[in-house]
Specification:
The structure is a single chain. This protein is α+β, with helices and mostly antiparallel strands and 387 residues long. 24% of the residues lie in helices and 36% in strands. The longest helix has 29 residues, at 2-30. The protein starts with a helix and ends in an 8-residue tail after the last helix.
């Protein structure tokens, strides 16, 4: 009899315990336990070699890492969304790739800022779920993400490591991973991490224009625009050349003392009056100035009078040509002044004393940027500076 009662209790308890266990598991998941979180570990981040980011405004960025670890990126435009882009945290200018310095539609050769890209990838290692929505809230979030969101894929070769859709809704950053939706928060780059998803394109552009050791430079030539090339009046232009010890095939005078000194010298200075040997310390000090040169985006800078061309030829790789122009601006900031009975806009463009506009050419690539004179004055001297 007792055995029968015990058996009945067991039969009753088993389903009851199963229900309790299921409720506990559901509650555990619901309260932030083993939720399928949209997180990558460091090992997975190291494997990422392609990133496809489609922003809410329809701008699509494709990043790719080559075998040397260098990131490049291209920009394309998908069908423009009817959503209010400003509510996603991006300005109309940011939404238009053609408005960005050095970026254009279907640009596939821009060098990406590797450090910035790595910071972006580490968002997915450090961020965490701030809130799990209710059923009704999840439905609304999913609809909002579908209408006004963007998408992201992180790939390693042909394998997709990570895929989400996302959107900003006020102060919330919403993520959809599969059928699940979450609001996310991130202590990593806490004040700026959302800008990676919806901010301007300029944050991705590599700001390092050139970075050479003196031993990596074959020659630097500077030609001033107001000098008459090839005549005795061109007293400013010059070329500093590092010649191999066994190379006597420079275009040097063949019957002068100058030729003998140049032929035996490691460094040679070419000017309108011929060539002369250059002390190694002077040449190497000059070539050392071409390290860690960073540019600034063009933005709305206006190009004025041309100043000079500078051509750097490295020991290996393509030459880099800089065409340097004055940066000019409206000295009156567009102010309106009275002139008789009429008011006219008195616009006087004056050179900027701090920055220049520079057209950069290397192989088939061309870009227009700003460079501070604090850099340019180290790169472009005149012929008398070496004497």
């Amino acid at each position: 009899m007792l055995q029968g009662k015990a058996l009945k209790k067991i039969l009753f308890l088993v389903p009851a315990l199963a229900v309790v266990a299921l409720l506990a598991i559901a509650l555990f998941h619901r309260m932030g336990g083993k939720v399928h979180e949209p997180v990558l570990d460091s090992a997975q981040i190291a494997q990422v070699d392609r990133v496809i980011l489609e922003r809410p405004d329809g701008v699509k960025l494709r990043f790719a890492k080559d075998l040397d670890g260098q990131w490049s990126f291209g920009v394309a435009k998908t069908a423009r969304r009817t959503a209010d882009v400003s509510s996603q945290g991006a300005s109309l200018q940011d939404s238009d790739p053609s408005a960005q310095a050095g970026l254009s539609l279907d640009n596939t050769g821009a060098i990406a800022d590797a450090a910035q890209l790595l910071d972006f990838l580490y968002v997915f290692n450090f961020w965490e779920i701030a809130r799990i929505p209710s059923v009704e809230e999840a439905r609304n979030w999913k609809d909002f993400i579908h209408r006004q969101g963007g998408s992201l894929k992180l790939k390693s070769g042909l394998k997709t490591l990570f895929r989400i859709r996302f959107a900003r809704q006020g102060e919330l950053f919403l993520v959809q991973l599969g059928s699940q939706s979450y609001a996310m928060q991130c202590p990593w780059k806490s004040s700026s991490w959302m800008d990676y998803f919806t901010g301007g394109l300029k944050i991705w552009q590599n700001r390092l224009l050139m970075d050479f050791l003196y031993s990596e430079i074959r020659s630097v030539e500077v030609r001033y625009s107001d000098a008459k090339t090839g005549t005795d009046s061109d007293t400013l232009s010059y070329k500093v050349e590092c010649r191999p010890y066994d190379d006597a095939s420079l275009g040097l005078p063949s019957d002068s003392q100058v030729f003998d000194s140049c032929r035996s010298s490691r460094y040679v200075l070419h000017t309108c009056s011929g060539c002369q040997a250059l002390a190694p310390a002077v040449a190497e000090n000059y070539f050392s100035a071409f390290a860690q040169i960073s540019f600034e985006p063009l933005d709305d800078a206006q190009m004025g009078q041309k100043l000079y061309d500078l051509v750097l030829r490295p020991m290996e790789g393509d030459s880099i040509c800089l065409s340097v122009f004055e940066k000019v601006s409206d000295s009156n900031n567009g102010s309106v002044v009275a002139s008789g009975a009429d008011s006219v806009k008195d616009i006087v463009l004056r050179p900027d004393i701090f920055k220049a506009v520079v057209v950069v050419r290397q192989a088939s690539r061309q870009d227009t940027v700003q460079l501070p004179y604090v850099f340019l004055d180290r790169l472009a001297k005149n012929a008398s500076w070496f004497r």
